[in-house]
Specification:
The complex is a heterodimer of chains A (150) and B (97). Chain A is built from three helices and six strands; from the N terminus they run E-H-H-H-E-E-E-E-E. By secondary structure, chain A is α+β, with helices and mostly antiparallel strands. Chain A has a domain of 89 residues: Roll (Thiol Ester Dehydrase, Chain A). In chain A, strands 1, 2, 3, 4, 5 and 6 form a six-stranded antiparallel β-sheet that branches. The longest helix of chain A is centred in the middle third of the chain and has 16 residues. Chain A is elongated. Chain B has 97 residues and is mostly beta strands. Chain B has a single domain, classed as Thiol Ester Dehydrase, Chain A. Chain B has one helix and four strands; from the N terminus they run αββββ. In chain B, 29% of the residues are buried. The chains are: A alpha+beta (150), B mainly beta (97). Chains A and B meet through helix 3 and strand 2 of A and helix 1 and strand 1 of B.
Chain lengths: 150, 97
Amino acid sequence: MKATVVDGVQVGTDLPSLSVRFTRERLVRYAGASTDFNPIHYSEHFARQVGLPGVIAHGMLTMGTALRVVTNWVGDPSRVISYAVRFTRPVVVPDDADGVEVQFSGSVSAIEGSLVTISIEATSDGQRVLGAARAEVDLGVRVPQRDHEI
Amino acid sequence: MAPPTFAAVISARGWDQLFSDPELELSLERTVHGDQRFTFMRPLHAGDAVIATATIDKVRVRSGSELISATVDITSRDGEPICTAQATFAHAREAAA
């Protein structure tokens, strides 16, 4: 098992952020990989018919990509014990070569013993696309806490 | 070892039952994912044989749409809990004009 980051972890510690580009091609690949063939993720016609502004990324693509902030940091994905998000705003993916860029960041929001809660932010076009996104990781060893007010 | 959110691919087999049940009259293209929570008891490994059991927990009816809360429990064939996936889906009854 890989060593994990423990030293220096405090409430407020920022995790390395991540920027990922979603294109229509990526959505098609994700549809195949995930088995989610909802046409709102590839067809402008279907997306507009149900009142969406255009083709949108799979929520699970955004959710799964966002967790990379945590798994890159913790090293060992088996340390993730819970992960929850709200899909607050659809990520509209235009039909061009550039697609849309989504920025992901995370910071430590709580520590209890060996359990560390990471709050994740995901934004696209300056707007938050995930709400209340939190992952809980078990670092396996108690995280030493400094005595100070937070 | 599978990435944690790979559990969604297995959960989807449970969710598919919602959308393929004619009695429920749900349409996948009028459905959006509202929220998602995973609780991981252990990671999924290549070679795992698992069972996914879907339960509809709650349906809230709003004007013209339904909020469906559903849980998929993923276990090993022996019943060992592996992951619980709780989701809310927003389903629009009629297509937008």
